[in-house]
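Forgive a beginner's question, but would it be possible to get a protein, spelled out as residues, together with the matching structure tokens, please?
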Amino acid sequence: MSKHQFTCEVEPQYLSEQSMPEEDVYAFAYTITVTNTGEVTAQLISRHWIVEDARGHTEEVKGLGVVGNQPLLRPGESFQYTSGTRLSTRSGSMRGSFFCVGEDGERFEAEVPAFALVADGGLGGEAPPRVLH
């Protein structure tokens, strides 16, 4: 185990009520749980996302914090937030990372593995979240 380590879990969800398929607008929410699985208290400083639609169009999103927060997590603590994105295709994927700093000054990245964004076509969200490996 690394002294400096955040583990990230993702639960994507298709938002049919915010989507307009006839206009090629597909809205998705994703809930991220960031857990400090390291041995040192550390702060999440910024995010970097790469969003890709089914046509291969990619968009990079960078910014400070997550939903207006820069959570400071002691070992074993978690921070959960929900955000969203829109695609112009029924499916796509996201991947990214968080830039973090330990209270000892050590800088590190917490990777968010790629996850699928798929419009379920009104299946009521029965499908389990799909994480790409």
